[in-house]
Design brief:
The chain is an all-alpha fold. It is built from three helices and no strands. The protein is flat.
């Protein structure tokens, strides 16, 4: 497995963790203090919090995940393009 493939898979795992977090937020009974939910919360919350401060909720909807997904996609594209340039 090449470095490019490893980094690509790492980004896929990160995307999946963020998606799981978003889907779990729809269920009010999730206990974020118990595993595996604690891991998902601990991994994603430091990323979401700064964007929540910048983008207020509208009608109870949190739009920070949209911004995080957009920026994560941009970072992924840049990192993979740089790695592709080395091969």
């Amino acid at each position: 497995m090449t470095l490019y493939q490893s980094v690509e898979q790492l980004f896929q795992i990160i995307w999946l963790i963020f998606l799981i977090r978003i889907l779990l937020s729809w269920f009010p009974n999730v206990d974020w203090h118990k595993q595996p939910f604690k891991f998902v919360n601990d991994f994603t919350e430091p990323v979401f919090v700064p964007f929540r401060r910048m983008i207020p909720a509208v009608g109870g909807m949190d739009f920070s995940p949209i911004v995080v997904f957009f920026l994560l996609g941009m970072v992924q594209d840049v990192v993979l393009a740089v790695l592709k340039g080395f091969y």
